[in-house]
Structure formats: structure tokens, C-alpha cells
Design brief:
Distance between the termini: 16 Å
Strand content: 15-25%
Bound molecules: pyridoxine-5'-phosphate
Strand order of the largest sheet: 1-2-3-4-5-6-7-8
Number of strands: 8
Number of domains: 1
Number of helices: 11
């Protein structure tokens, strides 16, 4: 039986990054989310950061009131973010590491090293009926700990693979892809739903989307950047069609 087609979560953070550059309401991430839904997104993802450098909790509230697609909130393991999640009750929360000085989420959450920090967040979000995912590096130890923590979903960090593709380092890309494939298999073998994301572009999406165990990809920065050249709608439609073709073995 053919594996189910992967879902596309469109991350609208960087629409808000551009908005915030001028401090006004334009461009509105809610308008981008509505456009993403029209273009074939299966979910909307956003990361409320401690420093609110892109989306804020008022954006989350407006999205929750206006869109019908599932919302995936990425957040750090802090009491402040937990309160925001419990108030907004998104469909899903993805727990991510966060450092103030980083430009983006540079690595996965070290659930093996931070088991005791992460565990209460998994429990409290699950108790509130929110599907919890852990953003981890594609490593078997992290998968095993994610299972022990009772996380129903993991999202595999694809940044190292996508960087290798972008820099033309074919051996490294092959190694990183192998790590993602092995981690995806390990996750499914342990009864965990597997997602993937970070740094994905038109050039790197196909091998990742072809991995049959992966159920969802979350993609943001590239789509917002590509919107400048071909439009947001067209960028989403193209990445989605590449995902579907990859899974169909085209
Ligand atoms: N998934 C997670 C957990 C992330 O933190 C991010 C970046 O916010 C993404 C996916 C999307 O990465 P990108 O914006 O590079 O596509």
C-alpha cells in the first residue's frame, strides 16, 4: 500500500519578521495563513519566541479565531509559553530549544540531556488535550527518550541535511539524509508519528518527502523568501506538488 502523502505545515513566522521591521500591521501573518490554506497547506505553524522577534500571542489568538486549519505552536519549555499555549489551545505544540542569541532554532531539543525539564511540559500539554511533538536531532537516543517521555510525535531537525544540499556537499548530504531516514524508521517502530522540518527548499524537499515514515513537513523561511520572486501562493503550490510527487515516487 502506498504511504500516505505527507502534510504540509506552512510556517508564517517570517511574514511577521517583515511586518515587525516597520512596526505596523503589514504584511499580516493572518492574511498569509489564509492564503496558505487556499494554496494547499494542511496546517499553519508559528513560533512565539521569548523575544517576540516575529509572531506574538495576539497573532496566535487572531489565527485561532479565523482559520480552520490545525495550528501548530512551536515554543520553548518555559512557564510563560506554557500559559500562552494553555490559553490558546492550539491543535499541536512542538517543543523546541531556544536561545536568545540564536538566529534560528539551530539544533534539536536535547531530550536525552534535558529529560527532567521537558517531562512536565509534555504531561501538562497532553493533559490539556494538545498533541505534543518534540523537535529533535535525527538520532536514535533522542527517539528513545521521546518515547519514554510519552511524546506522540517527534519532528526531526533537517537543518544539517538542507545546509549540506545548499553547499553542494554531496557526501555529507547523503550521510545526513541517512540519519533522517534511520530516525524516521526508529520513530515509527516505537509508535511515534514522525514529522520533519527546518531549512527545507525546492532543492532539498524531494528526498525528505520521499521518506515513507514522515507524515508532515514544516516549512517557512524559504517559502516567505520565495514569495518575493514567484509569490507566496505559487511557492506553496510548488513545494506541495514536489512533496506529493516525491511520495508517489515520480
Ligand atoms: N520546524 C521547527 C520545529 C522550527 O523551529 C522551524 C523554524 O522555526 C521550522 C520547522 C521551519 O524552518 P524553516 O523556517 O527554515 O523552514
Amino acid at each position: 500500500m502506498a504511504a500516505l502523502a505527507p502534510r504540509l505545515g506552512v510556517n508564517i513566522d517570517h511574514v511577521a519578521t517583515i511586518r515587525n521591521a516597520r512596526g505596523g500591521p503589514h504584511p499580516d501573518p493572518l492574511r498569509a495563513a489564509l492564503m496558505a490554506a487556499e494554496a494547499g497547506a494542511d496546517g499553519i505553524t508559528l513560533h512565539v519566541r521569548e523575544d517576540r522577534r516575529h509572531v506574538r500571542e495576539d497573532d496566535l489568538a487572531r489565527l485561532a479565531a479565523a482559520i480552520t486549519l490545525p495550528i501548530n505552536l512551536e515554543m520553548a519549555c518555559t512557564e510563560e509559553m506554557l500559559a500562552i499555549a494553555l490559553a490558546a489551545k492550539p491543535h499541536a505544540v512542538c517543543l523546541v530549544p531556544e536561545r536568545r542569541e540564536e538566529r534560528t532554532t539551530e539544533g534539536g531539543l536535547d531530550v536525552a540531556g534535558q529529560h527532567n525539564t521537558v517531562a512536565p511540559f509534555v504531561t501538562r500539554l497532553r493533559d490539556a488535550g494538545i498533541r505534543v511533538s518534540l523537535f529533535i536531532d535525527p538520532h536514535p537516543v533522542q527517539i528513545a527518550v521521546a518515547q519514554a517521555l510519552g511524546a506522540p510525535v517527534v519532528e526531526l531537525h533537517t537543518g544539517a541535511y538542507c545546509e549540506a544540499v545548499a553547499s553542494g556537499d554531496t557526501p555529507r548530504a547523503a550521510h545526513e539524509l541517512h540519519m533522517i531516514e534511520a530516525a524516521a524508521r526508529e520513530g515509527v517502530a516505537r509508535g511515534i508519528e514522525v514529522h520533519a522540518g527546518h531549512g527545507i527548499t525546492f532543492d532539498s524537499v524531494t528526498p525528505i518527502a520521499a521518506i515513507p515514515e514522515i507524515r508532515e513537513l514544516n516549512i517557512g523561511h524559504f517559502l516567505v523568501g520565495e514569495a518575493i520572486f514567484i509569490g507566496f501562493d505559487a511557492a506553496i503550490r510548488r513545494i506541495k506538488s514536489l512533496m506529493l510527487a516525491a511520495r508517489a515516487g515520480a
